Each structure stands twice: as structure tokens, then as C-alpha cells.
Write the C-alpha cells for this entry.
Amino acid sequence: MSAPASCSLTCNKEIRRFKVAINTACPLRCEYCFIDKDSGETISRSHVENLVRFQLSSPGKVKKLLLYGGEPFLNFDIVRETALYARAEALKAGKDLDLSICTSAGLPLKREWLEFLAEQRFFLSVSMDGDAETHDAHRRMKGGRGSHAGMLPNLKTIFDTIGKRRSMAIQCVHPDNVEKMLDNYKTLVGYGFENIEIEVIHGFGWKRTKHLFRPMLAKVFDWIWEEAHQGRFRFVVCSLVPLMLKEGVTLEDWCPFHSSMETYPDGNFSFYPFAFVDWDGRKKSKVGSASEGVPERYRSCTFDLASDQCKTCTSTYYSNPQVNEGNDPYRWRTEMARAFMDRVALASRTDPVMKEYLKEALIRCRIS
């Protein structure tokens, strides 16, 4: 299908990260995921090819394509085809492409799958909230039992194939478990993870426990600091973003095209949390599609922090009050993570341990 004259499958704004939900099916029924797991949707090959070319057409040398669902390992043929196609197109376009996949690890992961991902230099993320009690409170299988126990056998295979530098846990912090943030971070470290992202759950009431978020996250960073001085390096992944972006940090914060693009299996795309709102919300927040590209409004605009158009760009997409309740903790998380790395950078001038920590962080920052 050719793109209408009013749309374009090229982009004048840098798209560094693009999240692609390749399917909706998943063995889990997580309380805070709004994707319709029973709809049976999978992305078409033409949508994948158009989306890849769309991202690679945008300015910027380094690109990251993130595959998720649903559970992407339920459609591993699509994962394989997407990886091979994206690698070939990135080579032709002269782009430096990172590939990433996110899994619930709720089904047995075949070693051959993970070996292919390792060959293709994938980063792999596992959504795992911490200990069994915390995790199973919100992340249960379709039949109602907890998913935690079934994940554990997959971890050794992941570390053996993908490696610990390229693997991370996504620790989802819910208003109900914010007080256990440090304990759950330590639990994930105990399972073997060295890279852990602190992800804030949107769509649930934060009013009762929001005041606990910053002091608990401060304890996480204090513990990481102490561990580093014992020779054990741990990382909160969002703290690595400025190391990766350098001069692009402002774009990361302000222009949603830079790092917030995501698409549903039907090929329609918008900005995070596009795939995590209801169908009416997705229709309102759509900013283009894999078959039509982006409308004129987004083809002609360019990022300008002083522009009123830029300041109000996402105001119509984040109007869901429930989703908005997680905005403050999410912002605090990012601010505190960057402040921690500023502390590391300053200390590295005189502290040999922090100098080594910073060196390792620079190696791992591509996971972000």
C-alpha cells in the first residue's frame, strides 16, 4: 500500500527508540497490563518492514528497536524475521542498530531462541517485580496462579546465553509494594541480575504511598554505592541514559518522537503509554501508522524547547487521570537516577572505585 499524499513514511525528527508490540498473546494476565491478551493480534511483515524503514529514515546514528507484546516468544518466527530484516536495513542505511526484547519469562525459553538472540547481539529484559510475594500479587498466569516460580528456571539459560551485561530485570514498582523497593531490588540481584530498571506502574492510585517513593529509591542508590565499594557493581538502567545520549538528553526528556514511540500489532503508533491504554485512548492518541506514516503536523514540526507547540505536544495523549497518577514518581525516578550518576562522575575524579564503576557504566549504557 502506498502512503497517502498527506502522510510520510520518513521522519525529520530523530527516533532513537521504537517499541514494537509484535503480538497481544501472553500466558500472563498481569493486573497492570491493559493489552487484550485474547484478541489474537500479530503484526504483519509489511508493518514491520515499514516501521523499520521509518525509524531508520530519521536523523541520528544510533537506533534501538525494542520487541515486546504480549509475549514475543510466543511468535519467535516474527522475532527472528524482524531481527534479520532490521539488521540488513540498518547496514544499508549506515545506522548503528541495537535490538532488544522484553519477556515475562512465563513460558519455557528454548536455548536455541536465546542463542539466536545472542548471535544477533540482542539485549534482553525480564519483567520481574522481586520476590514471589510481591511479583505474584499482580503478575499471575491466565489460570490465576502466580508466575514467579515458572520464571526462575529461565534465568540461568538467559545469563548463560545472553550474558549478564546484556540482560536486565524490569522491577515494576506498584503503589502497594513501594515500601519493599530496596528489598525487591536486592532479591533481583540475588537471582543474578546486575542491571535492573526501576519501572513506575501507571494507572493505579499513588496518593496513599507516593510520599514513600523518593526515600525508598534513595535507599536503593545508597545500597548500590556501598556495594560498589565492595567490588560488586549494580546498575539502575535509567541512570545510564545520559551516558548513552550525551547531547541528546534534552530530546529524551522533551520530544516524544525521540524515545517514546511505540506501535500496536495493527501498525498504528503513538507515544508511551499508547499500548497501555484502552482502545478509545489509542484512537485519540494515534500519531501515524506503518502503512500511512505521519500526518503533515508531525512532518513539518521540529524540536524547539521554547516552542509552545512542543510544550503542548503530548497534552492530548496523557489526559487519562489514572495514567497520570504515576507521573510524579516516574519523574522523580529519572531525576534521582541522573543525580546518582552525577555523583558517580564527580567522585570518579578521586575515587578509583567510582572511576571503575563509571567505566563499566559506559560499557553497559547501550542497554538503556
Summary: The two ends are 34 Å apart (CA to CA).
